[in-house]
Amino acid sequence: MVIEHIDAQLPGAISDRHDFRGDQTIVVAKANFLAVVELLHREGFQLLVDITAVDWPERPETQGLGRFDVVYHWLNLANQERLRLK
After folding, report:
1. What is the pLDDT of residue 7?
2. I need a labelling partner for 17 at 20 to 30 A (CA). Which of 11, 29, 36, 60 fits?
3. Are residues 17 and 5 in contact, defined by beta-carbon separation less than 8 angstroms?
4. Which whole-number Å values give the CA distances from 68 to 38, 52, 58, 60, 65, in the listed order?
5. CA 22 to CA 14: how far, in whole Å?
6. Separation CA 13–CA 32 (nearest Å)
7. Other CB atoms closer than 10 Å to residue 27's CB: what's the count?
8. Rounded mean pLDDT, 57-69
9. What pairing do the DSSP bridges indicate for beta strands 82-85 and 23-28?
10. 0.70 surpassed by pTM
């Protein structure tokens, strides 16, 4: 799986992960975003299906996350694996 490969190549880059009904999601900090995207591209995730955002107006700024999450949906064309990157 690509998540384990990211962990091996970029230790600590993934701050959170979810897997629900085969739908994989990883959360990365802004500082790690470009490195993770470059690795995903090398691993075959070459189609960015969608970019969206989630507004969390009630989320306290003290969590260091900010009000918005940007969400990227990637597809590996070779094996049809999908990955959500926040």
Report:
1. 92
2. 60
3. no
4. 23, 10, 11, 11, 8
5. 18
6. 6
7. 16
8. 78
9. parallel
10. yes
